[in-house]
Design a protein that fits this description.
single chain; 683 residues; alpha/beta; six-stranded mixed β-sheet; four-stranded parallel β-sheet; 26 helices; globular
């Protein structure tokens, strides 16, 4: 860690009062040493990480941290505050602040060193000496590991202050020895993980291990951090009497721990109350409670948030988004291949014979047919993948088989996407119900491989074929007929509605609903004109927000910070590529002006696209698939109109905003907007 922290990166008299100011003060030291290239950009990444979960820990510690493209090498800065700074810890402000900066592609060795620091922070002797040390160089040496707490105390104080920790350690060792002398200790395996995988992951592991030693428990932790992870020996898991999951991101290969008493909590609980977790898992083991791999009450296997108060609506959205996220790559690949097939071979290419029987290397029609048929095969997976991964989001891997089976049946009975949605939800529910049935321990090994797939597939197949399949197929046909009948004002209004949805949350759930609605219509070999018009309107509207923000930063750059102007340059490329998320940095920083402006422009573009009868066979591609668009010139006019309206609105709204007292010119390093304002979050 010798090159990660130096005396220049230590501030033992941090006089600021807010976490944003503390991050800026420490980050400025990194900038001065050339460790950070863009102060505001780096602080935006720090704030985005902070928005995911507060980084304050019990015991007066704050660890703001992030991985950022603006960091040139792994760096650690330390600040000590006499007044304390609120980082969201339950026990109050933090007086020890560690700013950890890791490059976006930090190697495993550096991340391992950073994780070592995280473990040290669980050592009361280490943090106690940091609170009393008087020199920046000494503090840096202590953090690097060049000096031990005992070394520092020997130099600056009597040995009395370290006697108590040593005695406590001896007492703990005695307790453990006493346990060793008795019968077999209670055994626990644990998994810790956090969104960044740098600090909380390893601090939770250290805290659990320390609590385990104090309780006389044999506790082994698997840390699933940024440096990768080493799976626990299956024999260790098999011998364990209980499991603790302390995580805020999905536990990888969670099925390995099925069938054991399990406590499932957020990662901060592993840091702050490890003894309670150990007690809880022991109580569950005593009552004979076991987990068969079903989702914990606090979240789904796919998207664990650590919030145990989520309502059913939130869970349902996550389950559906799980299916959609896995489906989208099939949509993009298959749709673009089909569109290219039409472009090369003409609009009768869908009637061409199989390329296995007829393929001539020198004929364009053969290549067009090849692309079309490959795309058709990719499209055939859309509904099964949607259903399979909805079920996966609900019930983990056991949900995949019945989900895929139900999705395939949906295609067989012409129930389409509506059938796929129903099949996925039913499959997940059936698997969860099966997992709740208590079974003998001898049968647990065959449950996920034989019993659950067999029973769940049979139930889902029966329901889809015999009970609900026909009504859903009728509803799907009715929806298709309604879309085909849309003309005139109705079509324009639908275009405006889809445009509003595409620009409302810029890649979020509402945006995905509109996009999925559009792709569902063209996910067939011969989509209707109405379906292709809807797809064109959705893509056009989705391009508006990033292009409008890019144009606004070009036309009136003074209204934006330096970081926003840099983001504006990237937004040009993202916008023409139909990546709505390019506008997120602007919406996060100023949502009340940016989002309404984008929605108005998106609605105009969507309605004009429908009015111009523009069509699109490809589900993605942006400006690069214009040759595949019907009425391409008018389509570009629709996009330009929406972009101009959104640009004008956001400029006017930002121009009307009264400047806050003391606000510096955008782009200066002293800007107060960057850390304090809402920052861009990962899409």
């Amino acid at each position: 860690m010798s090159d990660m922290i130096t005396a220049e990166l230590v501030d033992l008299d941090l006089s600021v009062t807010t976490k944003e100011a503390a991050a800026r003060a420490l980050a400025e030291r990194m900038v001065a040493l050339g460790r950070v290239t863009d102060l505001d950009g780096f602080l935006a990444d720090v704030a985005a990480r902070e928005a995911q979960m507060p980084t304050g820990l019990d015991g007066g510690i704050g660890i703001p941290h992030c991985r950022s493209a603006h960091v040139t090498e792994p760096t650690l800065a330390f600040g000590r505050s006499a007044a304390g700074i609120d980082f969201g810890a339950a026990d109050g402000p933090a007086d020890l602040i560690f700013l950890i900066a890791a490059p976006a592609g930090a190697d495993d060795a550096h991340l391992t060193i950073l994780s070592s620091l995280a473990r040290q922070l669980m050592n009361a002797e280490f943090t106690g000496v940091l609170r009393s040390v008087s020199g920046a160089g000494t503090a840096a040496a202590l953090i690097r590991g060049d000096l031990t707490p005992a070394d520092v105390e020997a130099e600056h104080a009597s040995q009395d202050s370290v006697a108590a920790p040593v005695a406590a350690s001896a007492g703990a060792a005695t307790d453990t020895s006493a346990q060793d002398a008795g019968e077999r200790p209670f055994r626990i395996v644990a998994v810790t993980s956090c969104p960044t995988g740098i600090a909380h992951t390893y601090m939770a592991a250290e805290s659990l291990e320390n609590a385990g030693r104090e309780a006389g428990v044999e506790l082994t932790v698997e840390t699933q951090g940024s440096a990768g992870f080493t799976r626990l020996d299956p024999a260790v898991i098999a011998d364990a009497d209980g499991v603790i999951f302390a995580h805020d991101v999905p536990v990888r290969d969670k099925h390995r721990f099925a069938g054991k008493p399990t406590v499932d909590v957020g990662v901060k609980a592993g840091i702050n109350r490890p003894a309670e977790l150990i007690t809880e898992v022991r109580e569950k083991a005593a009552r004979g409670e076991v987990s068969a791999g079903a989702p914990a009450a606090g979240g789904t296997p796919v998207e664990r948030t650590g919030d145990s108060t989520e309502g059913y609506g939130t869970k349902l959205r996550k389950w559906l988004m799980s299916g959609v996220s896995y489906m989208v790559p099939f949509v993009a690949a298959g749709g673009l291949l089909i569109a290219l097939g039409f472009a090369i071979g003409g609009y009768k290419i869908n009637k061409a014979p199989s390329v296995m029987d007829h393929f001539i290397w020198t004929q364009a029609d053969s290549w067009g047919a090849l692309l079309f048929q490959i795309g058709g095969v990719a499209f055939a997976f859309l509904v099964p993948v949607l259903a399979g991964y909805i079920a996966y989001g609900m019930a983990d891997r056991p949900g995949l088989v019945p989900g895929f089976v139900g999705g395939s049946i949906s295609l067989t009975i012409n129930a389409g996407f509506l059938g796929g949605l129903a099949a996925g939800l039913i499959a997940g529910g059936v698997v969860i119900a099966i997992q709740k049935v208590k079974i003998p321990a001898a049968l647990r090994g065959v449950m996920p491989v034989v019993v659950i797939p067999l029973i769940s597939s049979a139930i889902v197949g029966f329901l889809m074929f015999v009970v609900i399949g026909k009504p859903i197929a009728s509803a799907q046909k009715g929806l298709t007929d309604w879309l085909n009948g849309l003309t005139g004002t109705n079509a324009v209004l639908l275009g405006a509605l889809l445009g509003l949805m595409m620009c409302f949350d810029l890649g979020g759930p509402v945006n995905k609903v509109a996009y999925t609605f559009a792709t569902a219509g063209i996910a067939v070999a011969s989509p209707s004109d109405s379906a292709m018009k809807i797809m064109a309107a959705v893509m056009a509207a989705g391009m508006v927000p990033p292009l409008a923000m890019a144009l606004a930063t070009t036309v009136r750059g003074k209204l934006f910070t330096h970081t926003e102007r840099e983001n504006g340059k990237a937004a040009w490329v993202l916008g023409i590529s139909f990546i709505s998320e390019g506008a997120i940095p602007f919406a996060a920083a100023d949502p009340l002006r940016v989002i309404p402006s984008a929605m108005v422009g998106g609605a105009i573009t969507g309605s004009l696209s429908m009015a111009f009868d523009a069509t699109l066979r490809a589900p993605h591609g942006g400006i690069f698939v214009v040759p595949l668009i019907g009425n391409p010139l008018l389509y570009l006019v629709a996009i330009a109109a929406g972009v101009c309206v959104s640009t004008a609105l956001v400029i006017v709204l930002k121009g009307l905003r009264k400047a806050a007292p003391g606000t510096p010119e955008p782009g200066t390093s002293g800007s107060t907007a960057a850390p304090g304002a809402k920052q861009p979050v990962a899409a």
